[in-house]
Design goal:
Length: about 120
């Protein structure tokens, strides 16, 4: 099993930056695809960014050029660097893990609130 704990959320002004961290516990972290999702009030959870065990990344179109996902396997940590934040980025951000043998993200963190003021 994989345990995920997010941190780094908070209140920022529009145009500002924030870095989220996700600490992962459990076996074979380095083989997991890691992802970030978000959910705004009244909306469905949406994909933000993902990174495979070998470093391939994927981003939602609205995040490209603004958000960067990275991982540091030696610390069992994945990061989401968020730049040029917009009020519409306000949401609870979740870290998720997909083991290499799984077809979906099966492990989720508790979420961290990101609020962007205008």
């Amino acid at each position: 099993q994989v345990q995920l704990v997010e941190s780094g959320g908070g209140l920022v002004q529009a145009g500002g930056s924030l870095r989220l961290s996700c600490a992962a516990g459990g076996r074979s972290f380095s083989r997991n695809t890691m992802g970030w999702f978000r959910q705004a009030p009244g909306k469905e959870r949406e994909f933000v960014a993902g990174i495979t065990w070998n470093g391939m990344t994927d981003y939602a179109d609205s995040m490209k050029g603004r958000f960067t996902i990275a991982r540091y396997n030696a610390k069992n940590t994945v990061y989401l660097q968020m730049n040029s934040l917009k009020p519409e980025d306000t949401a609870v951000y979740y870290c998720a893990a997909k083991p290499v043998s799984n077809l979906s993200y099966d492990y989720w963190g508790q979420g961290t609130q990101v609020t962007v003021s205008s």
